[in-house]
Amino acid sequence: MIVTLTANPSIDRTVQLDQPLVRGSVLRAQSTRSDPGGKGVNVARVLSAAQLEVLAILPGNPGDPLLSALATGAIPHLGVATTGLARTNITVAEPDGTTTKINEPGATLSASTLEALAHELISRADIADWIVLSGSVPPGVHPGWYAELVAALRDHPCRVAVDTSDAPLSALAENFPHSAPDLLKPNGEELAQLTGVDSHLLENAAQAGNPGPAIAAANRLVERGVGAVLATLGAAGAVLVTADGAWIATAPPIVAVSTVGAGDSSLAGYILAATAGADEAQCLRHAVAYGSAAASLPGTTLPTPKQVDLAGVTIVAAESVLPTELA
Fold first, then answer.
1. Residue 202, SS3?
2. How many CA atoms does the CB half-sphere of 33 hold within 13 Å?
3. Rounded to whole angstroms, how far apart are CA atoms 43 and 37?
4. Confidence of residue 320 (pLDDT cuts 50, 70, 90)
5. Mean pLDDT of the region 87-91
6. CB 20 within 8 A of CB 10
7. Distances from the Cα of 311 to the Cα of 40, 270, 296, angstroms
8. How far is Cα 259 from Cα 261, in angstroms, rounded to an integer?
9. Beta bridge partners of 88
10. How many CB atoms lie within 10 A of CB 72?
């Protein structure tokens, strides 16, 4: 079973335009849709579509539209009593695939809600294959909460994956190796944040076909105790670095429609393969294939296995890159 925690879930409303977004103008939507959202919820939705046993844990009360949407989508979930309804996030999607997101801050969680979320999570740590901590934390939650959860889960047999950003990500890294997860999934900007590397250097090198700086940066995190670093680099693909080596993935050619949910789909793809016992290269292949599939779909649509092009992903072992880049 895969358990996901989404501390700051949302209803994701997507507005698709048939023309570029122009500030200050009146635009008409080509279409709109609403989906249950939040990064952990997205991971659970992708894994559920692939027929894995999942449980999405999140704050929510009976009657909350978010929980109703999860029930309608047949996504197994557990709502922990809280105050207020889930936030609504708005994505404006342009015809060329450019997306503009407006995310509400979310409702403040009480100490009792945080304790209940942690209890529900840790109580399943002995039966879950993976526990995924994903997304931002809502107002009032201290940034070190994810680090505390990872530390509490270390004595259990489950593997732990974390995908977050900003202050919670920094707090996690400050407590390495005690809070080091089995899998960390930063994007290029987050990888730079963690390691102090110039984000433009990582981005420009990756776009030029040189993943060496990203591999070197990810290896610093592995040296600090992280089991594996899956660094997604947008259209440039991704790299996976563990203590055993590094692998580079080139994404299949796609027409990008919306990048919303692509990172969550990448994480789900990795976990899907890892749960099946795949090696590192195949885990990376699944991650990039799922992320690319998500980027080719409109709005917050998430991929099913039939929409994923595994054969289109190229994987190269990077042993020859590591010695020079890490010297």
1. helix
2. 11
3. 10
4. low
5. 91
6. no
7. 27, 15, 16
8. 6
9. 11
10. 9
Q: Which amino acid is at 152?
A: A
Locus of tokens 């203590």: 243
Angstrom distance (rounded) from CA 301 to CA 209: 29
> Which residues fall within 8 angstroms of residue 147, CB to CB, at 6 or more apart?
168, 171, 172, 174, 175, 178, 179
Query: Do residues 108 and 83 touch, judged by C-beta distance below 8 A?
Result: yes
The first and second tokens of residue 271, run together, are 């976990």
For residue 147, which of 162, 130, 127, 125 has the smallest C-alpha distance?
162
Distance CA 8, CA 68 (A): 16
For the chain, give the mean pLDDT. Answer: 92
Peptide bond into 177 cis (omega under 30): yes
C-beta of residue 47 within 8 angstroms of C-beta of residue 265 = no
pLDDT, greater one: 142 or 327 = 142
Q: How confident is the model at residue 325 (pLDDT cuts 50, 70, 90)?
A: very low
Strand partners, 50: none
Q: Which amino acid is at 320?
A: S
In the sheet that holds 99-103, the strands lie side by side as 29-37, 10-17, 87-93, 99-103
Q: Indicate the pTM of the whole model.
A: 0.92
Q: Pick from 46, 94, 132: which is nearest to 298 by CA?
A: 94
Rounded Cα distance between 151 and 144, Å, is 11
Alpha helices (H) in the chain, listed in sequence order: 39-49, 65-72, 111-122, 145-153, 166-174, 188-195, 199-207, 212-223, 262-275, 280-295, 322-326
Closest CA to 267 of 23, 8, 50: 50
Among residues 129, 16, 117, 34, which one has the least CA distance to residue 73? 34
> Nearest 5°: phi and psi at 132?
-115, 120
